Fold:
Amino acid sequence: MPFQEKIVLNPIGYVKTKAEGDEVKDESTVSQIVIRDELVEGLSGITGFSHLFVLFYLNQVTSEQRKTLKVHPRGRQNMPLTGVFAARTMLRPNPIGLTLVELVKVEGNVLTVRGLDAYDATPVLDLKPYDFWDMAENAKVPDWWKKLNSGKPQKLL
Amino acid sequence: MPFQEKIVLNPIGYVKTKAEGDEVKDESTVSQIVIRDELVEGLSGITGFSHLFVLFYLNQVTSEQRKTLKVHPRGRQNMPLTGVFAARTMLRPNPIGLTLVELVKVEGNVLTVRGLDAYDATPVLDLKPYDFWDMAENAKVPDWWKKLNSGKPQKLL
Structure:
Protein backbone atom coordinates (compact mmCIF):
# COMPACT_ATOMS: atom_id res chain seq x y z
CA MET A 1 0.00 0.00 0.00
CA PRO A 2 1.81 3.19 -1.15
CA PHE A 3 -0.31 5.46 1.11
CA GLN A 4 2.53 6.78 3.25
CA GLU A 5 4.65 8.09 0.40
CA LYS A 6 5.33 11.81 0.47
CA ILE A 7 5.59 13.53 -2.86
CA VAL A 8 7.72 16.63 -3.23
CA LEU A 9 7.23 19.01 -6.14
CA ASN A 10 8.85 22.28 -7.12
CA PRO A 11 6.93 24.98 -8.98
CA ILE A 12 7.88 25.41 -12.65
CA GLY A 13 6.78 29.04 -12.45
CA TYR A 14 4.09 31.31 -11.09
CA VAL A 15 1.02 33.29 -12.07
CA LYS A 16 1.14 37.03 -12.64
CA THR A 17 -2.19 38.80 -12.74
CA LYS A 18 -3.75 42.12 -11.83
CA ALA A 19 -7.10 40.40 -11.19
CA GLU A 20 -8.06 40.30 -7.51
CA GLY A 21 -10.70 38.41 -5.55
CA ASP A 22 -13.59 37.17 -7.67
CA GLU A 23 -12.15 38.86 -10.77
CA VAL A 24 -9.94 35.79 -11.30
CA LYS A 25 -13.08 33.71 -11.86
CA ASP A 26 -14.07 35.77 -14.88
CA GLU A 27 -13.29 33.55 -17.84
CA SER A 28 -12.22 36.53 -19.93
CA THR A 29 -9.43 37.36 -17.45
CA VAL A 30 -6.00 37.50 -19.09
CA SER A 31 -3.02 36.43 -16.94
CA GLN A 32 0.63 35.68 -17.38
CA ILE A 33 2.46 32.53 -16.44
CA VAL A 34 6.15 33.15 -15.78
CA ILE A 35 8.25 30.02 -16.26
CA ARG A 36 11.63 29.46 -14.58
CA ASP A 37 14.35 30.55 -16.98
CA GLU A 38 16.05 27.15 -16.99
CA LEU A 39 12.82 25.45 -18.18
CA VAL A 40 12.10 27.68 -21.17
CA GLU A 41 13.16 24.99 -23.65
CA GLY A 42 10.20 22.94 -22.38
CA LEU A 43 7.86 25.46 -24.04
CA SER A 44 9.16 24.65 -27.52
CA GLY A 45 6.26 24.02 -29.91
CA ILE A 46 3.58 24.98 -27.40
CA THR A 47 2.07 27.61 -29.69
CA GLY A 48 0.94 24.77 -31.99
CA PHE A 49 -1.84 24.23 -29.46
CA SER A 50 -4.67 26.72 -28.92
CA HIS A 51 -5.51 25.55 -25.39
CA LEU A 52 -3.59 24.29 -22.37
CA PHE A 53 -4.32 22.73 -19.03
CA VAL A 54 -2.64 24.62 -16.22
CA LEU A 55 -1.98 22.69 -13.01
CA PHE A 56 -1.30 24.98 -10.10
CA TYR A 57 -0.90 24.77 -6.35
CA LEU A 58 -3.59 26.47 -4.30
CA ASN A 59 -1.15 27.75 -1.69
CA GLN A 60 -3.75 29.77 0.19
CA VAL A 61 -5.50 26.58 1.35
CA THR A 62 -4.57 25.82 4.97
CA SER A 63 -3.71 22.37 6.31
CA GLU A 64 -6.97 22.50 8.29
CA GLN A 65 -8.96 23.26 5.10
CA ARG A 66 -7.29 20.29 3.38
CA LYS A 67 -9.27 18.05 5.72
CA THR A 68 -12.59 19.18 4.21
CA LEU A 69 -14.48 16.23 2.70
CA LYS A 70 -17.83 17.77 1.73
CA VAL A 71 -18.85 21.18 0.45
CA HIS A 72 -21.86 23.01 -0.91
CA PRO A 73 -20.72 23.62 -4.52
CA ARG A 74 -19.50 27.20 -4.90
CA GLY A 75 -20.55 27.82 -1.27
CA ARG A 76 -24.24 27.94 -2.18
CA GLN A 77 -26.36 26.60 0.66
CA ASN A 78 -29.09 25.58 -1.79
CA MET A 79 -26.73 23.16 -3.49
CA PRO A 80 -26.44 19.61 -2.07
CA LEU A 81 -23.57 18.73 0.26
CA THR A 82 -21.14 17.09 -2.13
CA GLY A 83 -17.85 15.21 -1.73
CA VAL A 84 -14.78 17.26 -2.59
CA PHE A 85 -13.85 14.71 -5.30
CA ALA A 86 -17.24 15.38 -6.91
CA ALA A 87 -16.64 19.14 -6.89
CA ARG A 88 -14.04 21.58 -8.17
CA THR A 89 -13.67 23.33 -4.81
CA MET A 90 -10.17 24.37 -3.80
CA LEU A 91 -10.76 22.71 -0.43
CA ARG A 92 -9.35 19.22 -1.04
CA PRO A 93 -6.64 16.95 0.40
CA ASN A 94 -4.15 17.89 -2.33
CA PRO A 95 -5.09 21.44 -3.33
CA ILE A 96 -4.13 21.28 -6.98
CA GLY A 97 -6.04 23.52 -9.37
CA LEU A 98 -6.73 22.36 -12.92
CA THR A 99 -7.97 24.88 -15.46
CA LEU A 100 -8.33 24.82 -19.22
CA VAL A 101 -7.05 28.09 -20.67
CA GLU A 102 -6.66 29.65 -24.07
CA LEU A 103 -3.06 30.31 -25.05
CA VAL A 104 -2.83 33.88 -26.31
CA LYS A 105 0.94 34.20 -26.85
CA VAL A 106 4.38 33.19 -25.65
CA GLU A 107 7.27 35.64 -25.27
CA GLY A 108 10.46 34.12 -23.87
CA ASN A 109 9.56 32.60 -20.51
CA VAL A 110 6.18 34.35 -20.26
CA LEU A 111 2.92 32.83 -21.48
CA THR A 112 -0.17 34.98 -21.79
CA VAL A 113 -3.38 32.99 -21.24
CA ARG A 114 -7.10 33.68 -21.05
CA GLY A 115 -9.37 32.08 -18.43
CA LEU A 116 -6.97 31.15 -15.64
CA ASP A 117 -8.78 31.37 -12.29
CA ALA A 118 -5.64 31.64 -10.15
CA TYR A 119 -4.46 34.49 -7.96
CA ASP A 120 -1.29 36.50 -8.43
CA ALA A 121 1.87 34.61 -7.35
CA THR A 122 0.18 31.18 -7.41
CA PRO A 123 2.84 28.48 -7.97
CA VAL A 124 2.39 26.63 -11.27
CA LEU A 125 3.12 22.88 -11.28
CA ASP A 126 2.70 21.85 -14.89
CA LEU A 127 1.39 22.83 -18.32
CA LYS A 128 -0.17 20.25 -20.60
CA PRO A 129 -1.37 20.77 -24.16
CA TYR A 130 -5.09 20.20 -24.61
CA ASP A 131 -5.96 17.63 -27.23
CA PHE A 132 -8.93 15.59 -28.35
CA TRP A 133 -8.33 12.81 -25.80
CA ASP A 134 -9.40 15.37 -23.19
CA MET A 135 -12.89 15.57 -24.64
CA ALA A 136 -15.57 13.21 -23.41
CA GLU A 137 -18.42 12.40 -25.70
CA ASN A 138 -21.84 12.29 -24.05
CA ALA A 139 -20.51 13.53 -20.71
CA LYS A 140 -23.12 13.63 -17.96
CA VAL A 141 -23.21 16.01 -15.01
CA PRO A 142 -25.64 16.11 -12.07
CA ASP A 143 -28.69 18.36 -12.00
CA TRP A 144 -27.14 20.64 -9.35
CA TRP A 145 -24.29 21.37 -11.76
CA LYS A 146 -26.73 22.44 -14.49
CA LYS A 147 -28.61 24.70 -12.05
CA LEU A 148 -25.37 26.23 -10.78
CA ASN A 149 -24.27 27.07 -14.32
CA SER A 150 -27.64 27.93 -15.84
CA GLY A 151 -26.88 31.65 -16.15
CA LYS A 152 -23.57 31.11 -17.92
CA PRO A 153 -22.69 30.45 -21.53
CA GLN A 154 -23.11 26.73 -21.84
CA LYS A 155 -20.33 25.84 -24.28
CA LEU A 156 -21.20 22.35 -25.45
CA LEU A 157 -24.04 21.81 -22.96
CA MET B 1 9.34 35.06 -6.66
CA PRO B 2 7.86 31.87 -5.19
CA PHE B 3 10.24 29.60 -7.13
CA GLN B 4 12.00 28.03 -4.16
CA GLU B 5 8.85 26.79 -2.45
CA LYS B 6 8.66 23.04 -1.96
CA ILE B 7 5.23 21.49 -2.18
CA VAL B 8 4.47 18.31 -0.26
CA LEU B 9 1.54 16.12 -1.21
CA ASN B 10 0.21 12.82 0.12
CA PRO B 11 -1.54 10.34 -2.15
CA ILE B 12 -5.30 10.04 -1.67
CA GLY B 13 -5.13 6.45 -2.90
CA TYR B 14 -3.57 4.27 -5.54
CA VAL B 15 -4.27 2.46 -8.81
CA LYS B 16 -5.01 -1.24 -8.94
CA THR B 17 -4.80 -2.86 -12.37
CA LYS B 18 -3.85 -6.15 -13.97
CA ALA B 19 -2.72 -4.33 -17.13
CA GLU B 20 1.04 -4.37 -17.64
CA GLY B 21 3.39 -2.46 -19.93
CA ASP B 22 1.68 -0.98 -22.97
CA GLU B 23 -1.64 -2.56 -22.00
CA VAL B 24 -2.29 0.43 -19.72
CA LYS B 25 -2.38 2.68 -22.78
CA ASP B 26 -5.35 0.81 -24.25
CA GLU B 27 -8.27 3.16 -23.70
CA SER B 28 -10.61 0.23 -23.04
CA THR B 29 -8.52 -0.85 -20.01
CA VAL B 30 -10.55 -1.07 -16.83
CA SER B 31 -8.74 -0.24 -13.56
CA GLN B 32 -9.60 0.38 -9.95
CA ILE B 33 -8.73 3.38 -7.86
CA VAL B 34 -8.55 2.56 -4.16
CA ILE B 35 -9.13 5.61 -1.98
CA ARG B 36 -7.83 5.94 1.60
CA ASP B 37 -10.61 4.85 3.96
CA GLU B 38 -10.66 8.14 5.82
CA LEU B 39 -11.37 10.07 2.58
CA VAL B 40 -14.36 8.03 1.37
CA GLU B 41 -16.82 10.79 2.29
CA GLY B 42 -15.12 12.90 -0.39
CA LEU B 43 -16.61 10.58 -3.04
CA SER B 44 -20.16 11.52 -2.10
CA GLY B 45 -22.15 12.39 -5.22
CA ILE B 46 -19.39 11.44 -7.65
CA THR B 47 -21.60 8.98 -9.55
CA GLY B 48 -23.60 11.97 -10.78
CA PHE B 49 -20.74 12.52 -13.23
CA SER B 50 -19.98 10.15 -16.10
CA HIS B 51 -16.33 11.17 -16.45
CA LEU B 52 -13.50 12.20 -14.12
CA PHE B 53 -10.04 13.61 -14.37
CA VAL B 54 -7.54 11.49 -12.49
CA LEU B 55 -4.35 13.23 -11.34
CA PHE B 56 -1.65 10.76 -10.45
CA TYR B 57 2.02 10.76 -9.59
CA LEU B 58 4.32 9.09 -12.13
CA ASN B 59 6.55 7.56 -9.45
CA GLN B 60 8.63 5.56 -11.92
CA VAL B 61 10.13 8.78 -13.36
CA THR B 62 13.64 9.30 -11.96
CA SER B 63 15.04 12.64 -10.78
CA GLU B 64 17.37 12.54 -13.79
CA GLN B 65 14.42 12.04 -16.18
CA ARG B 66 12.65 15.01 -14.57
CA LYS B 67 15.32 17.23 -16.13
CA THR B 68 14.17 16.32 -19.65
CA LEU B 69 13.03 19.43 -21.55
CA LYS B 70 12.40 18.10 -25.07
CA VAL B 71 11.09 14.81 -26.42
CA HIS B 72 10.02 13.20 -29.65
CA PRO B 73 6.28 12.71 -29.00
CA ARG B 74 5.61 9.10 -28.00
CA GLY B 75 9.29 8.35 -28.65
CA ARG B 76 8.83 8.45 -32.44
CA GLN B 77 11.95 9.73 -34.12
CA ASN B 78 9.91 11.00 -37.07
CA MET B 79 8.05 13.40 -34.79
CA PRO B 80 9.58 16.85 -34.16
CA LEU B 81 11.59 17.48 -30.98
CA THR B 82 9.00 19.13 -28.78
CA GLY B 83 9.09 20.82 -25.38
CA VAL B 84 7.77 18.69 -22.54
CA PHE B 85 5.09 21.33 -21.79
CA ALA B 86 3.86 20.90 -25.39
CA ALA B 87 3.65 17.11 -24.98
CA ARG B 88 1.94 14.65 -22.67
CA THR B 89 5.15 12.70 -22.01
CA MET B 90 5.68 11.45 -18.47
CA LEU B 91 9.17 12.97 -18.58
CA ARG B 92 8.56 16.41 -17.08
CA PRO B 93 9.78 18.48 -14.10
CA ASN B 94 6.74 17.57 -12.00
CA PRO B 95 5.69 14.13 -13.23
CA ILE B 96 1.95 14.42 -12.70
CA GLY B 97 -0.29 12.39 -14.99
CA LEU B 98 -3.67 13.77 -16.02
CA THR B 99 -6.15 11.44 -17.70
CA LEU B 100 -9.83 11.71 -18.49
CA VAL B 101 -11.58 8.46 -17.55
CA GLU B 102 -15.07 7.07 -17.67
CA LEU B 103 -16.50 6.31 -14.23
CA VAL B 104 -17.94 2.78 -14.33
CA LYS B 105 -18.95 2.31 -10.69
CA VAL B 106 -18.12 3.11 -7.08
CA GLU B 107 -18.21 0.52 -4.30
CA GLY B 108 -17.13 1.80 -0.89
CA ASN B 109 -13.63 3.20 -1.32
CA VAL B 110 -13.04 1.59 -4.73
CA LEU B 111 -13.79 3.31 -8.02
CA THR B 112 -13.84 1.32 -11.24
CA VAL B 113 -12.81 3.43 -14.24
CA ARG B 114 -12.19 2.91 -17.96
CA GLY B 115 -9.27 4.47 -19.81
CA LEU B 116 -6.74 5.16 -17.05
CA ASP B 117 -3.21 4.84 -18.46
CA ALA B 118 -1.48 4.31 -15.11
CA TYR B 119 0.42 1.29 -13.82
CA ASP B 120 -0.51 -0.82 -10.84
CA ALA B 121 0.24 0.87 -7.48
CA THR B 122 0.55 4.36 -9.00
CA PRO B 123 -0.19 6.97 -6.28
CA VAL B 124 -3.33 9.01 -7.01
CA LEU B 125 -3.23 12.71 -6.10
CA ASP B 126 -6.73 13.94 -6.89
CA LEU B 127 -10.01 13.21 -8.64
CA LYS B 128 -11.98 15.97 -10.32
CA PRO B 129 -15.39 15.69 -11.94
CA TYR B 130 -15.36 16.45 -15.67
CA ASP B 131 -17.74 19.20 -16.70
CA PHE B 132 -18.40 21.41 -19.68
CA TRP B 133 -15.83 24.03 -18.65
CA ASP B 134 -13.23 21.37 -19.53
CA MET B 135 -14.25 21.42 -23.17
CA ALA B 136 -12.61 23.83 -25.56
CA GLU B 137 -14.51 24.88 -28.62
CA ASN B 138 -12.44 25.06 -31.80
CA ALA B 139 -9.34 23.60 -30.15
CA LYS B 140 -6.29 23.48 -32.44
CA VAL B 141 -3.48 20.95 -32.29
CA PRO B 142 -0.26 20.82 -34.36
CA ASP B 143 0.06 18.70 -37.49
CA TRP B 144 2.39 16.23 -35.74
CA TRP B 145 -0.38 15.49 -33.25
CA LYS B 146 -2.82 14.67 -36.05
CA LYS B 147 -0.29 12.38 -37.74
CA LEU B 148 0.51 10.64 -34.46
CA ASN B 149 -3.17 9.93 -33.83
CA SER B 150 -4.32 9.30 -37.37
CA GLY B 151 -4.91 5.58 -36.83
CA LYS B 152 -7.04 6.07 -33.71
CA PRO B 153 -10.69 6.87 -33.21
CA GLN B 154 -10.79 10.62 -33.48
CA LYS B 155 -13.50 11.51 -30.99
CA LEU B 156 -14.42 15.09 -31.81
CA LEU B 157 -11.61 15.61 -34.32
